[in-house]
Design goal:
This protein is mainly alpha-helical and 52 residues long. It has 2 helices and no strands. It has helices at residues 4-25, 31-51.
C-alpha cells in the first residue's frame, strides 16, 4: 500500500527528473547543478525503495 509520504517522495523525484531534463537541454548546461540534482534524485529513489 502506498502512503502519502511515498507519494510525496515520488512527486519530488519526478519534479527533479524534469529539472534535470530542462537543465540538460540548455545550450550550456551547468554540470554543478546537474550533479546536485542527480544526487537529490538518487537520495529520493533510495528513500522510496526503502519504503517498499
Amino acid at each position: 500500500m502506498q502512503t502519502t509520504h511515498q507519494t510525496a517522495l515520488e512527486t519530488k523525484h519526478a519534479t527533479i527528473d524534469r529539472r534535470i531534463a530542462e537543465e540538460s537541454r540548455r545550450p550550456m548546461p551547468d554540470a554543478t547543478i546537474l550533479a546536485g540534482l542527480k544526487k537529490q534524485k538518487l537520495h529520493l529513489k533510495e528513500e522510496i525503495v526503502a519504503l517498499d
